[in-house]
Design brief:
mainly alpha, Farnesyl Diphosphate Synthase, globular
């Protein structure tokens, strides 16, 4: 039986920032709207984290079976490829995580109705399709679109809606930044693994457009993300304090320069971690600024 530390490794804790961040933003906006619902916010976070863990588990075993991940990969150790977990164990863990997500989301589906049912069902479906089969989202080069939508506007809006039971265009706009920063995390991952993915026939967006354009897309993501608080302030001047969130973004400019210059895959691992940290910092600052 695999150890607890092995399962923590397989869950990819650093990627969970992309799950927590939009829930934080959506909840902060619900607080400001006077409709915060603590139980719903907590269950949103739990369900989102479990879906992300289930997706990570499935990605771990699927990439191993396709020969994408090996023990000599540039990125962090993968549990199945390293022999720390068997294929059957990882598949059972995937089903277990998604089942817990459905159970934790039961109340949310009852409270929020069909919109939450659709969001939850699609999140789990795309979690499987991310790396499942020959025509997986990642192999088709469209995983970045899924990440933007479901870790950005959908996650923020879903968290807000299930608490306030209403929707605002400002909430959807606010979700653009977490979505783009989550895409930036994925871009670093795929730039690092571009050669391994190409050899394995995994045609990610970076494999399709090339490494250089991958770094350009990273820069575009962080620049547009920085523009979201500015756009919200122009739209709602009373919310000008959200501009403090922009302060988190410049940290990624040196990271982008290193991303563009580095050819060694393993050198990019700290950039991935830094991008995830900035996503979390941005979301905290945005939440504070919106609530004040």
């Amino acid at each position: 039986m695999a150890s607890v530390s092995t399962w923590i490794l397989a869950s990819r804790p650093k990627t969970l920032f992309a799950t927590v961040a939009p829930v934080l933003v959506g909840t902060a906006m619900a607080v400001e709207a006077g409709g915060v619902h603590i139980l719903s916010a907590t269950l949103c976070l739990l369900a989102a984290v479990l879906i992300q863990i289930g997706t990570n588990f499935h990605n771990d075993v699927a990439d191993f079976e396709k020969g994408v991940d090996t023990a000599n990969r540039s990125g962090p150790l993968r549990a199945t490829a390293a022999g720390l977990v068997t294929v059957s164990q990882m598949k059972r863990a995937t089903i277990f995580a998604f089942t817990l997500a459905v159970l934790s989301g039961g109340y949310l589906m009852w409270r929020g109705g069909w919109p939450i049912v659709v969001i939850g069902a699609l999140s789990i479906l795309f979690g499987f399709l991310y790396t499942a089969g020959r025509f997986s989202l990642s192999s088709l080069g469209v995983a970045d679109v899924f990440v933007f939508v479901f870790f950005g506007p959908v996650a923020v809006a879903g968290t807000y809606y299930v608490q306030v039971l209403a929707m605002s265009p400002a909430v959807l706009l606010a979700g653009v930044a977490p979505g783009l920063l989550s895409v930036a995390i994925l871009l670093v991952n795929n730039i690092r693994d571009v050669e391994e993915d190409r050899e394995a026939g995994k045609n990610t967006l970076v494999v399709r457009v090339g490494r250089v354009w991958g770094t350009h897309l990273y820069l575009m993501c962080i620049v547009v993300a920085a523009g979201v608080p500015i756009a919200l302030t122009l739209w709602q001047p009373a919310k000008s304090l959200v501009l403090i969130a922009v302060l988190a973004i410049p940290v990624l400019v040196p990271a982008w320069r290193k991303l563009r210059a580095s050819k060694e895959g393993h050198v990019l691992n700290p950039i991935l971690a830094r991008t995830a940290q900035v996503l979390m910092l941005y979301s905290i600052l945005f939440s504070i600024g919106w609530s004040l």
